[in-house]
Design goal:
The complex is a heterodimer of chains A (355) and B (606). Chain A is of the alpha/beta class and 355 residues long. Chain A is built from ten helices and 18 strands. With 606 residues, chain B is an alpha/beta fold. The chains are: A alpha/beta (355), B alpha/beta (606). At the A-B interface, loops of A face helix 2, helix 3 and helix 4 of B.
Chain lengths: 355, 606
């Protein structure tokens, strides 16, 4: 059996990340798999920190591994034997790693940086976790590059415009499915700057590691005819992607990014998708050095509706059937509504990865 | 410490003045700051972080739905561009709490009321303790600086004569209450009691000096019908509640720039667990002190039970265990008053207050005898003993004048107060004068407050100050009978009276919850918070603004002073203070006062 780490990421708050995590916990705890659980946000609390509406709780059996901030333990009914106190500090105290010795509800806030999640992932693997679940936070994605794959939770809380939701989910799926290609021409700087290089691997132009300003790309004009590839180790903005798509690079140009998250953080998934399509049409290719496959999508028709009269939120819903069918048509991975279908289908996708 | 480079940015359409203040504080502490303009995109702030190579970023943003995602994306960008490992991120704004900061991916969250020092600690990498220790409180001695010198020599002379008479009269007298206090003082040791040691000598003596209810408790194990012991689970829950609350509460000040008045808030729901909750709320919303209210039947009962007991009606039973638990729940800087003023357990209450290290108590022979139902002779004997214990333990006390609420005119109530105060000074104790700030029957009948609530209350304070240099502590609570069941009105009335007290420079005030008179049961926390917030706002609004007494207030103060002198002369002429109480010189049936009957014929010759 393989050891894998899965990230449960969301497109927004209240899209069903913790519901997905809970469904997977319930399923795999029943199968006797040693689970690891952590969160890059704050999960398992009884009411939402912003809306005040009820939230799903996380119940853990004995034997499961967890990494949480110290103050979470005091408000959890689950008993945890601390095995390691890390040097990772959060607003809720130091992150500790341990094993559940008394079953119960757990509030989970864990490492919230890429490097910190990597440290926890290695600890979980060292302790023998078969499946480690990383519950997401809001729309956060960056730390998820430390996982082996993503489950995306999306729904009406992100937008009640179902067409837009489908388009975004499809775009995200497309970006996550970019081919992994770890090879760069020898001698290129790996991390601290973006570069344009020719067929011989010679650097033609140097740019900042992250590309935020499209004006900065204008300096590439003279080197464009001889360019064979562009490597960007940092984040690229939507406006830069748009500009890169417009520049007259030669056919067959390869655009390399560190991982899909660097494109997803452009903030404009539709612009990012348009860029991919434009490059493909020109015979070019967009690749990522480190892949982050999208394994499945879960949908949630719920959204908190703000009431201006009483300054609070009430639960509201979009048409669940339309939401499910729309997302299914837009993405190339399995899509589930866990509240209607249960966890079996999603768990089946993961079981295939583990075994 | 190496100076840090700190970038501050409002992710908001408008500038945040709090961020500007924090920026200035950080700069003054020797660090370099970069304050960005408002309304920048997360990407633009990230670019500034990269170009300035900062160590710390402080963002501010008012939270609303959808805003959390913007902040989370900012953190994601910081992580993805590779600065997250070396730049510490803090977020501040309305509704920001540590849990939310953790969810958003920040290193710290700063809610409303964050101080520059708190932000500076984060910048300098010192330990961040959210919500704790923002201000520590130190207990104030209300009597410090007062000489107790008389400014009205005629009144001083009359009081001296009356005090001589009281001491002569009481010299060879005692009572069951005095004897119990003596047994409690001599045979009951608080440390041994805390160690669960059985005090056989005490138990052999004490029940025989008690009335039926405590006797049944000690000899037959029978509880008072409206009390019960807390269960073990309830005790554990209380201890957990106190631990959790202390962990997250802060101790804000209530008085803004003022040094006084010290603000006392009452508790006494009947249930020490509820009381503890009220105490923690009082502390967390800025009260300086809390006052223990016991049930009215406690004043009519000879002796105390023991055990951690809850009571199904108003008033929290005085037992060693109840006082001990409540004492343990108090913050170190919170003043604690245990009232002893009115009943058959007055001296023993002072002994217990002393042994449990209460800061203040409350004693007034005249009010207890004329407005609270205790026999004048008995309360005079017990009052003298109680004052001696207060002097021994060094516990100051207020001398309340609640007989005004029965209808006794202020000048008569004040005469009684001054008699107890003078007696106290003679016995080495430290009294504080407690005029009522109230809409009393006298005021209603005479029309003293037809136009405003200010002049007559000012007159009272002026009159007392012309008589003696002593601390003044209006109560109890201030604004009595000016409040209605409308919580806004009630809170506003309390706030105005508190502000008046502050302008008069008095030493302390006692305030009630906005539902105190109309709760129909235990007072509620929101109502308690109402008045504390309202009082704080009053102090904030007026600051050190002073008030000039009106001609009317000066005239009334003169009338009160001469009225006091007249009453004291009649008492002195009568030559017997106790008989003066029975005969109504300090308040009669027509006024609404009547000599109490509890404890009648229990005074014993030694």
């Amino acid at each position: 059996m393989k050891q894998i780490t899965l990230g449960i990421a969301g497109t927004a708050k209240n899209t069903g990340k913790t519901t997905t995590t809970r469904a997977l916990l319930e399923h795999f705890q029943g199968l006797g798999v040693t689970l690891g659980l952590t969160s890059i946000g704050y999960d398992g609390e009884s009411v939402d920190n912003v809306t005040g509406l009820p939230k799903p709780r996380l119940y853990l059996d004995r034997g499961q591994l967890v990494a949480v901030a110290e103050r979470c333990l005091a408000v959890s009914s689950a008993g945890v034997k601390v095995l390691e106190r890390t040097d990772l500090i959060t607003p809720l105290g130091r992150v500790v790693c341990g094993r559940v010795v008394k079953e119960g509800l757990l509030v989970v806030a864990g490492p919230n940086q890429i490097a910190h999640l990597g440290q926890i992932r290695r600890w979980m693997a060292g302790q023998g976790a078969g499946l480690t679940l990383v519950d997401g936070a809001l729309n956060r994605l960056a730390p998820m590059v430390e996982t082996d794959g993503l489950i995306l939770a999306t729904g009406a809380s992100r937008s009640t415009d179902l067409d837009r939701l489908a388009l975004e989910a499809g775009s995200l799926g497309l970006i996550c499915s970019l081919p992994g290609d770890g090879e760069l021409p020898a001698g290129l700087p790996a991390a601290d700057q973006s570069v344009v290089y020719d067929h011989g691997g010679r650097v033609l132009a140097r740019l900042p590691a992250s590309l935020f300003d499209p004006e900065g790309l204008n300096s590439l004009g003279p080197v464009i005819p001889g360019a064979a590839g562009l490597y960007c180790p940092g984040v690229v903005s939507g406006r830069c992607l748009e500009r890169l798509g417009e520049l007259p690079f030669p056919a067959g140009m390869i655009f390399s990014f560190a991982d899909p998250v660097k494109i997803l953080l452009s903030g404009d998934l539709i612009a990012a998708r348009s860029f991919l399509e434009k490059i493909c049409r020109k015979g070019g290719n967009v690749v990522c050095r480190r892949p982050l496959p999208l394994l499945a999508v879960t949908v949630n028709p719920f959204y908190p509706n703000y009431r201006f009269g009483t300054h609070d939120y009430k639960p509201a819903y979009v048409d669940g059937e339309l939401l499910l069918s729309g997302i299914r048509a837009a993405v190339g991975v399995p899509v589930f509504d866990l509240a209607r279908e249960g966890a079996g289908g999603l768990a089946g996708v993961i079981e295939k990865l583990i075994r | 410490m190496t100076p840090k480079k700190v970038l501050l940015a409002p992710i908001d359409p408008v500038h945040d003045v709090g961020l500007k203040l924090i920026s200035r504080g950080i700069r003054e502490a020797g660090h370099e700051t970069v304050l960005l303009q408002p309304d920048l995109e997360p990407e633009e702030i990230i670019q500034e972080i990269l170009s300035h190579r900062v160590d710390v970023v402080l963002l501010s943003r008012t939270l609303g739905y959808g805003v959390a995602e913007i902040l989370a994306r900012f953190v994601d960008l910081a992580d993805a561009v590779g600065v997250r490992g070396r730049v510490r991120l803090g977020i501040g704004g309305m509704a920001i709490r540590p849990e939310l900061a953790a969810e958003l991916g920040f290193d710290a969250g700063f809610g409303p009321g964050t101080t520059v020092e708190e932000a500076l600690a984060f910048v300098e990498g010192r330990e961040y303790l959210p919500g704790r220790g923002k201000e520590s409180k130190e207990k104030q001695d209300l009597t410090r600086g007062y000489s107790y010198a008389y400014r009205n020599s005629r009144i001083a002379g009359l009081l001296s004569v009356i005090t001589d008479g009281i001491l002569d009269w009481a010299a060879n007298k005692t009572s069951p209450g005095v004897l119990r206090a003596q047994v409690r003082e001599d045979l009951w040791d608080v440390d041994r009691w805390r160690n669960y040691e059985k005090m056989s000598e005490f138990l052999a003596e004490y029940p025989g000096l008690c009335g039926e209810v405590p006797q049944n408790f000690y000899l037959k194990g029978v509880m008072h019908p409206k009390t019960r012991r807390f269960t073990r689970e309830e005790v554990e829950a209380l201890e957990q509640y106190v631990r959790d609350t202390v962990e997250r509460m802060s101790l804000p000040g209530l008085r803004h720039t003022l040094q006084k008045p010290v603000v006392f808030n009452q508790y006494g729901t009947g249930c020490p667990f509820l009381d503890t909750g009220h105490i923690k709320v009082s502390e967390a919303w800025g009260a300086d002190g809390v006052i223990h209210f016991d049930p009215s039947w406690g004043a009519r009962t000879e002796g105390f039970m023991d055990g951690f007991l809850t009571h199904q009606e108003d008033g929290t039973v005085i037992t060693p265990a109840n006082l001990n638990r409540i004492k343990m729940s108090l913050e170190p800087g919170t003043l604690w008053q245990v009232r002893a003023h009115r009943g058959l357990n007055t001296p023993e209450t002072v002994v217990l207050a002393g042994k449990f290290k209460a800061d203040l108590t409350k004693i007034n022979i005249c009010y207890g005898a004329l407005g609270a139902g205790t026999d004048p002779a008995r309360l005079t004997v017990d009052g003298v003993a109680a004052i001696r214990y207060a002097a021994k333990y060094g516990i100051p006390f207020d001398v309340v004048t609640n007989e005004e609420l029965c209808g006794v005119p202020a000048y008569k109530a004040f005469a009684g107060m001054l008699i107890t105060a003078d007696l106290s000074l003679r016995l080495g104790a430290k009294p504080a004068l407690q005029p009522l700030f109230c809409y009393s029957p006298e005021v209603m009948l005479e029309g003293y407050m037809r136009d405003n609530y200010v002049d007559f209350n000012v007159a009272k304070v002026l009159a007392l100050r012309r008589i003696i240099d002593a601390p003044v502590w209006p109560g109890a609570p201030i604004g009595f009978m000016t409040q209605t069941e409308d919580r806004v009105q009630s809170s506003a009335a309390t706030s105005y009276h508190a502000s008046l007290a502050a302008m008069l420079g008095v030493d302390a005030i006692t305030i009630a919850s906005s539902d105190e008179a109309y709760s129909g049961g235990p007072i509620t926390v929101p109502s308690k918070v109402d008045t504390l917030r309202a009082v704080a706002e009053g102090f904030r609004f007026f600051g050190h603004t002073s008030i000039e007494p009106s001609a009317q207030a000066r005239a009334w103060s003169g009338e009160i002073e001469s009225g006091i002198e007249g009453v004291l002369r009649r008492v002195a002429d009568r030559g017997d203070f106790v008989q003066a109480l029975y005969e109504g010189i300090l308040g009669n049936l027509e006024d609404g006062a009547y000599p109490g009957r509890n404890g009648r014929d229990t005074v014993l010759e030694k």
